[in-house]
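Long-time lurker, first post. I've been practising inverse folding by hand and with some scripts of my own, and I keep getting stuck on stretches where the structure tokens seem ambiguous. Below is the full token string for one chain I'm working on. Before anyone asks, I'm not after the true native sequence, just a reasonable design that respects the backbone. If someone could post their per-position residues I'd love to compare against what I wrote down in my notebook.
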């Protein structure tokens, strides 16, 4: 319906008070207002009470941060459809001159449309005519459903729903007016946030572009086609910044051969089925392609840097590296540094058993993130497990007896069944949190456990601890039945008492506690330790004889000694994770690290504690 407007006669009093105001109104009581603001005048104080009666507002003069806060308020100009500030100046005052977006504050700069300045606007606002004297427009300044115009600005231009600098080399912003855009071949950079969360389905990017900004196309959930074309003068190198195409709908991607860098999460959560990295690419950021759908990934010789989880995919079976790459290598489908001392990434879809090569001393953070591998065997050379290394991994068995340091969240909610880590001195936050399948845990060398490092171990049956001073909270271990403590006095940092429900509480009254010789009375008298169903001194180290026939197995000075069998009798020694620690003559068992071991002689098994 065509709107009818009438000019209101301004009263004498109004003209005396506000001679610079021109008012018109429409038949539905909405008015158009022109207003010139002086340096010390406030838009809110002048029209605040009548703000909801304004359809179009034309402003000249000085716009301060206070004025901008009022303009974008959803409680003020709720019926405004058009804002014309072409003759106004955005004005920076001394002091705290800021506008706010969801409790975050941004300071006004002279003649600058700042980051998030015109975002989250009144619902009915459709069009803004921008100032002629603006010299800078920062990324992410506008809502995408706006129509933008300039009256006569010498520095910027709007064409076809796209906002550029005057020479059209920088694409600053895209309005949500089309589902496909062909970017002009004059453009060399696409600004951060420029297309974010628009309804775009296809974009054609010319070879002149050197930079695609952070989150430029992020959350464009309908964007299924991105074409990097040969139009325009080919740039020397293309950098795709962090999050540039995250959470789009790409199933196909052909990166141009001049791509030099792909930033963190650049193509995060796209279903790209095949990714060909061009020879010449150097840097690939953290989680750059995380969640894609490839089954095999090849890394060219030019790559110098690969971030953590760059190629995580639940479908990926193999990562292969060009033999001429100077920084990376591969072995049996996994990614390593060049000399294979650090395992960097294991394919998320690879199943079966995997033996980490000898010489690897570190498992990098996120290396086995969400792994579905059936079993991982670590060599004795591995002494460091990085942060989040096995987070959410379904891998049930990992040999850790030689490991000296484990990072935070390393086994968070993983499927690990046995953890023999007597050499680890400190557990960091959430190391084994909610490992519901963990049945055996040896942390006899640890003096400290971080926040919830050993919490929610509902499958734990056997525990070994030492001089734990802080944080050993074993409150939710209802199946715990054996605890071996090697401290001469009850450790003050271990607790079994609290729980959130009877079915989940640790039931120490059903468990047996093994303590050093001569320590019984101290544990029996402890309020924390005295409630175990049975407390047994370990004596000389022989904890439990599972077999007999006159053979005795005990420890002497930290060594396992077998008595009562003849020369040449063979023995096998296993730790409680099932790993073979020794095989040979029973009389020559070497010194082993602290822990509980099972010694098998002629088919008979003996359990013994080494302290």
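-- Answer (accepted) --
I ran through it position by position. Result:
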């Amino acid at each position: 319906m065509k709107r009818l407007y009438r000019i209101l006669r301004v009263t004498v009093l109004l003209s005396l008070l506000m001679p610079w105001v021109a008012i018109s109104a429409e038949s539905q009581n909405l008015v158009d207002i022109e207003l010139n603001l002086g340096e010390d005048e406030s838009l809110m104080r002048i029209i605040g009470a009548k703000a909801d009666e304004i359809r179009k507002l034309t402003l000249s003069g000085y716009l301060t941060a206070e004025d901008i806060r009022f303009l974008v308020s959803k409680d003020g100009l709720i019926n405004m459809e058009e804002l014309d500030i072409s003759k106004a100046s955005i004005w920076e005052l001394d002091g705290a001159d800021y506008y706010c977006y969801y409790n975050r504050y941004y300071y006004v700069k002279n003649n600058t449309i700042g980051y998030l300045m015109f975002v989250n606007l009144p619902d009915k606002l459709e069009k803004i005519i921008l100032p002629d004297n603006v010299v800078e427009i920062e990324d992410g300044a506008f809502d995408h459903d706006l129509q933008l115009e300039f009256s006569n600005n010498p520095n910027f231009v709007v064409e076809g729903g796209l906002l550029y600098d005057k020479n059209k080399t920088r694409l600053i912003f895209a309005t949500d007016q089309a589902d496909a855009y062909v970017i002009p071949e004059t453009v060399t950079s696409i600004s951060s946030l420029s297309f974010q969360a628009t309804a775009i389905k296809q974009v054609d990017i010319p070879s002149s572009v050197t930079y695609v900004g952070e989150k430029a196309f992020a959350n464009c959930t309908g964007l299924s086609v991105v074409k990097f074309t040969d139009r325009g003068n080919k740039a020397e190198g293309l950098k795709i910044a962090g999050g540039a195409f995250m959470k789009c709908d790409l199933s196909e991607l052909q990166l141009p051969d001049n791509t030099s860098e792909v930033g963190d999460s650049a193509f995060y959560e796209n279903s790209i089925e095949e990714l060909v990295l061009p020879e010449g690419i150097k840097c690939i950021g953290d989680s750059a392609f995380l969640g894609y759908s490839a089954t095999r990934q090849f890394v060219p010789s030019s790559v110098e840097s690969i971030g953590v989880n760059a190629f995580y995919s639940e479908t990926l079976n193999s990562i292969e590296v060009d033999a001429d790459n100077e920084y990376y290598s591969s072995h049996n489908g996994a990614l390593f540094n060049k000399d294979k001392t650090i395992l960097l990434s294991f394919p998320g879809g690879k199943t079966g058993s995997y033996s980490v090569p000898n010489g690897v001393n570190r498992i990098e953070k996120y290396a086995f993130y969400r792994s579905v591998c059936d079993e991982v065997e670590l060599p004795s050379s591995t002494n460091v497990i990085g942060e989040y290394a096995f987070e959410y991994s379904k891998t049930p068995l990992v040999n850790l007896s030689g490991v000296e340091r484990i990072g935070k969240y390393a086994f968070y909610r993983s499927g690990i069944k046995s953890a023999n880590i007597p050499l680890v001195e400190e557990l960091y936050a959430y190391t084994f949190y909610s490992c519901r399948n963990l049945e055996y845990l040896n942390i006899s060398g640890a003096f400290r456990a971080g926040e919830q490092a050993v919490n929610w171990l509902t499958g734990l049956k056997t525990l070994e601890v030492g001089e734990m001073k802080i944080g050993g909270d074993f409150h939710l271990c209802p199946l715990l039945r054996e605890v071996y403590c090697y401290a001469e006095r009850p450790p003050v940092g271990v607790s079994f008492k609290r729980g959130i429900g009877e079915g989940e509480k640790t039931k120490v009254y059903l468990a047996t506690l093994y303590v050093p010789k001569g320590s019984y009375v101290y544990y029996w008298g402890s309020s924390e330790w005295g409630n175990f169903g049975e407390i047994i001194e370990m004596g000389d180290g022989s904890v439990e004889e599972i077999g007999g026939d006159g053979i005795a197995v005990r420890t002497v000075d930290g060594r396992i000694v077998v008595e009562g069998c003849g020369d040449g009798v063979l023995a096998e020694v296993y730790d409680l994770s099932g790993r073979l620690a020794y095989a040979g003559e029973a009389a020559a068992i070497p010194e082993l690290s602290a822990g509980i071991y099972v010694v098998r002689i002629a088919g008979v098994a003996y359990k013994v504690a080494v302290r």
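A couple of notes from the structure itself: The first strand starts at residue 5 and ends at 7. The two ends are 90 Å apart (CA to CA). Happy to go over any region you disagree with.
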